[in-house]
Amino acid sequence: MNDTDAIIEDFAPLKTQYIPSEFADRDDLQNTLQSLISQAEETGSRNLLIHGPPGSGKTHLVQAHLKDTPTTVNTCYIPCTHCKTQYQALKQLYHTVTDETVNDGHHTADLKREIEERTHATSPIVVLDDIDFLLQNDGNDLLYYLSRTNDINTILISTKRQSLEDTIEERTRSSLQPQPIPMEPYTPEDIYQILLQRAQDALKPQSLHREALTYIASTTTNTSLALHWLKTAAEQASQTITENTVKDTRESGRRKYIDELLHPFTDHHQLLYQAIQELTEETDSETIQTGAVYQRYQELCKTYNEEPLSNRRISDYIKHLELLQLIKADYHYGGTKGKTREIRVNKLF
DNA sequence: CATCCACCGGAAATGTTGGGAC
DNA sequence: GTCCCAACATTTCCGGTGGATG
Predict the structure, then answer these.
(1) How far is the CA of A69 from the C1' of C15 (A)?
(2) Which nucleotides of strand B come closer than 7 angstroms to any CB of the protein?
(3) Strand, helix or coil at A208?
(4) Which of A82, A122, A250, A289 has the fewest CB within 10 Å, making it most exposed?
């Protein structure tokens, strides 16, 4: 453990959420965002939909922006991986506009009414990160409400490439009409630069070989994954992070990334993912099937002394893992299999 | 062409939690 | 304290799904 102190001077820059003083990359996008939002301040309402693969900087960009927003504007960041229901999201929003906390047990209509009364002329910005989780779990009631409430500007963040058209009702889409902003994955050079900057802020000088960063950057274009990996390497290394250090910590870095992704979810999500991983390693074929996965999941529950959830519920959890892009679960029709899903683990690298 | 496979996913049912009215 | 209500997680129920098989 003491080895950690040897290299890392400041943990913060190695965390995904860290916002460097200079947000050099993606200036153009930040300008776009800026102009759209100032436009919104003038015209009343304008909504954005930022979409792109994991680790392409969606959340980061928005949070950097919120940080620059004048304090006169109410901003509300809602991570839908945590707030999966309309009520939980409204609670957050209620808190930002009234500064009071509210417990469960109220009617959503009451919260909505109260929020509306307090938002007149204040035009808060509501960010719904990972909106797909809320949509999958609770439908689009919240989005409909937000789109109908004049003074609220929304920024939606989604990993799905398509726009929201297939997941939301027509009436919601027509009044929301979010402006799509695509985020392309970073290039290896981008990743290299980002890691370099974070390393400079976090690590002691001379503690890092360039080849180490090159190796990470050539392996993944997912910033979050890359940072977890670098952090793991930094924790392992006693004096300097070499190319070998990162090669050795490849697996544990990946593991850390996944742990953080799954953190907001339940133990059953973890068990389910474990079941899928184990089965994938054991079988030769590319894909595995829901039935086998559920069986393995039940076995794992037994060993960990957990009461297994129903397969209907697990079917939803598979969707969650899919939304996190940890697995792919495409439909398979026909054969002796009927309609089922073919599950495969996303390699990440 | 009917039937079957092996699961999908919508809808209703159940159980729990917390609020408010009385 | 009692009663009823809404929100929510989870289970139960059940009508699909479409190629393979006979």
Answers:
(1) 52
(2) 5-11, 17-20
(3) strand
(4) A122
- Cα→Cα distances A144→A138, A168, A191, A290, A310, Å: 12, 9, 37, 34, 31
> Among A21-30, A129-138, A144-153, A239-248, which stretch is predicted with the lowest mean pLDDT?
A21-30
Is pLDDT above 60 for A46?
Answer: yes
Q: Stretch A285-311: mean pLDDT, rounded? A: 95
Q: Report if CB A319 to strand B is under 7 Å.
A: yes
Q: Which of residues 69-128 of A touch strand B (CB under 7 A)?
A: 103-106
Which H or E element spans position A189? helix A188-202
Does residue A137 approach strand B to less than 7 Å at its CB? no
Nearest alpha-carbon partner for A287 in A320, A348, A331, A335: A331
Q: Which residue has the tokens 């990440």?
A: A348
pLDDT of residue A1: 46
Q: SS3 of A277, please?
A: helix
Q: Which nucleotides of C are covered by protein (CB under 7 A)?
A: 6-13, 16-21
Distance A315 CA to C12 C1' (A): 15
Q: Which whole number is the average pLDDT over A100-128?
A: 91
Whether A72 shows a pLDDT value over 90: the answer reads no
Q: What's the rounded Cα separation, in Å, for the pair A104 and A236?
A: 44
Phi-psi region of A155 (alpha: psi -120 to 50; beta: other; left: phi over 0): beta
DSSP helix/strand/coil, A140: coil
Task: Report protein residues in contact with nucleic acid strand C, where contact means CB under 7 Å.
Answer: A 84-88, 105, 107-109, 137-138, 266, 309-310, 312-313, 333-339
**Residue A72 CA, nucleotide B15 C1', distance (Å):** 44
Q: Tokens for A216, please give them.
A: 């990470």
In this complex, the nucleotide whose C1' atom is nearest to the CA atom of residue A316 is: B9
Tens-digit pLDDT profile for residues A76-104: 999 999 999 999 999 999 999 999 999 99
